[in-house]
Specification:
The protein is α/β, with parallel strands linked by helices and 210 residues long. Helix content is 35%, strand content 20%.
């Protein structure tokens, strides 16, 4: 079971890896759901995480709010991906959603720039209408995403109440793309969540005991 620690800048990164996390998602300002950290933080985090034998994914999100990005914002995200690659990160995390559906055009553009990096579509996925999610999974798999980070519903709903939908997503994925549960997954319940969903990865700010 792979445990991904969601890190706000460098806070607790070393402690989390030493406690069992083998991958780090690096972002800034979790209060608004996470945005791209500064270049200096990415540099130091890559050095630290790789030195401890773990891998690192960097959030590509230019602002808080929704996930419907303008042309200029998508262009900025392309530049961020190029910079993150040069800084040695293993992968990137992003999500583009417009009007309750996957924004295929923006997602394809960014995935093309990120080719060769590990790709996670973050919890913007939960803003996609449930009826459109199976098609979105198929598209993301085709574009080369390794996984989708999802709570299976609104974040204010406990994860034990979204397990049924998470199982539906796992079935819809047909093994083409991973389903990584997050939002309310902690070191206390992660084994149960992963066993019930039959998944091998989980994500959270408290995914390991610090």
């Amino acid at each position: 079971m792979l445990l991904e620690f969601c890190a706000q800048n460098l806070a607790n990164v070393q402690e989390a890896i030493e406690a069992g996390a083998s991958r780090v998602e690096l972002c800034d300002n979790l209060r608004i759901g996470g945005v791209t950290p500064s270049d200096d933080v990415v540099d130091e985090a890559v050095r630290l995480v790789h030195g401890l034998g773990a891998t690192i994914m960097v959030m590509v999100r230019p602002r808080g709010g929704d996930f419907a990005y303008s042309e200029s914002e998508v262009a900025l995200m392309e530049q961020i991906i190029d910079a993150v690659r040069l800084r040695g990160a293993d992968g990137v995390v992003f999500g583009c959603v417009r009007n309750g559906e996957l924004d295929e055009e923006a997602t394809c553009r960014l995935a093309t720039v990120a080719k060769g990096l590990d790709l996670t579509f973050h919890m913007a996925f939960d803003d996609i209408c449930e009826s459109a999610q199976p098609k979105a999974l198929a598209t993301l798999a085709r574009l080369g995403f390794s996984r989708v980070l999802t709570h299976g519903g609104p974040l204010d709903v406990p994860i034990d109440k979204t397990m049924a939908h998470l199982r539906e997503l796992k079935s819809s994925a047909h093994g083409r793309i991973g389903i990584m549960p997050g939002g309310g997954v902690t070191w206390q319940n992660v084994e149960v969540v992963c066993q019930q969903l039959d998944v091998s990865e989980a994500h959270g700010t408290r995914i390991v005991r610090l």
